[in-house]
Amino acid sequence: MAASVVSRPQQKTTAPAGLLVAPAIIALVLWMVVPLAMAIWFACQRYNLLSPDNREFVGVQNFVYVLTDSSLWISIGITLMLVMSVLVITIGLGTLLAVLFNQEFAGRGVARVLAISPFFVMPTVSALIWKNMLMHPVNGLFAQVTRGLGLGAIDWFADLPLLAIIIIVSWQWLPFALLILLTSIQSLDTDQMEAARMDGANALALFRFVVLPHLSRAIAVVAMIETIFFLAIFAEIFVTTAGGPGLATTNLAYYIYLKALLEFDVGGASAGGLIAVVLANIIAIFLMRSVARNLDT
Amino acid sequence: MASKSSSPWWITLLGWLVAGLLCFPIFWMFITSFKTEVAAVATPPQLLFKPTLENYADIQARASYFTFAWNSVVISLGATILALVLAIPAAYAMSFFPTKRTKGTLVWMLSTKMLPAVGVLMPIYILAREMGLLDTRIGLVIINTLINLPIVVWMIYSFFKEVPKEILEADRMDGASTWQELRHVLLPLALPGIASTALLSIILSWNEAFWSLNLTTFDAAPLTSFIASFSSPQGLFWAKLSAASTLAIAPILIFGWISQRQLVRGLTFGAVK
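YS: structure for the whole thing
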């Protein structure tokens, strides 16, 4: 806020400030408003790209149809399970690994770079590495190792498809949680740590009463950003299970995709899309609040 | 800091073990890319083998790898340049001439990131079709620009904020115009920040999969879509897939390693520094 007070006198000398912001704002308004308005418009119509002439206004019929479709609720359940599991895994392990990588050890810089690498791998590549080379029931490395030990092999995508997706997504996003939480841990006041240690706090108490409270905000930020991305997981499912077997890995994003580009049901897909928007917005409100609070500091 | 310099040996071991495990799938893919197709699926898995480069030659000969790679390059660079052109003036105005609405505008920009892509899949698909942008690089450039614009504005804004105001004021006293000020004073000072913003934008566009998979078929398909085509069950070309994947992720891995610090700032909208 202090900054705005200082610079206000100069505002008169440079008139086009508003003009400079305008292009970015207009672009984003168009990007937000036009597709959303179209989605609402489509959602109120019977409209299938396979029979485009048979198009008419049907009011809330698409919403009724989608909301009474048991597949939608199954897909919402799968979405929530996927989001919650990966959140717990990435944040739980991420916190522990952040503490580990905060210790000084030989070659820490290189080790850290290796550890965060999976985050930069494009989703289709990571999904296929896991599907083919690691989790394949015959030639995959996991199957080869467990069979070598006489334990038999797991057919991951047939028997434990959702767990397989959870593992893949966790592998991609654990580095993200680690990177953010490590950055936050490094800003911890070392004097405070020393003082607590002088007072005889052991490592566990130090973690519980000094490190964890310090990390709480970073953890909240990670949780919210990850949630936004996890609600929309698509490529990993697209290249591994295609939503199957049955509906076992059909999350909300994949459900809408099936409606949209396989059934070409514009009305139904738009209604489903709007439900996804509402779901994401509930979470977004929390995220925006904490970000906005941070703007002043 | 006494404890930091004298970590016990098992911390070192554990740290390297974790790093090795996390990186292992990438390492395994890298190794597989130098095997023959037969060796790639051999039982037991081979660690020692005679390396071959034929996969790298094959993916170009049979699948015209470089067409897809070129699409990725054009789309991610195009989207990044376009986003910078829109974002730099906006960030400049908002950081040096803030008004009552600036904070609200910034938060609103970020909130557009919360719109799930799948929610507008159908409208965007139909719009792109009507405008002839389906399966074109221009279409994906526009979409990636809009997806990343909030993050780009945000990051450049935060870098501009760090430029000392006194420098700009001194320059203004000398009678520099807004354009001169932007070009000769501010941009050179903020260049490292702008560079890391550009890197993040390139990384995000390069790895973008949802719109690439849904809006392209062949002509404009970037590497994310090309790699996805390996998921079809007919024929298991693991060695070729590995070679294609290795080439596809290598530049981004390097960019990522370079920009890990700034990445935190960009990805958390400045909430964690």
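YS: worth flagging: Chain B touches chain A through 106 residues (CB under 8 Å).
IM: good catch. Also DSSP finds 14 helices and no strands in chain B.
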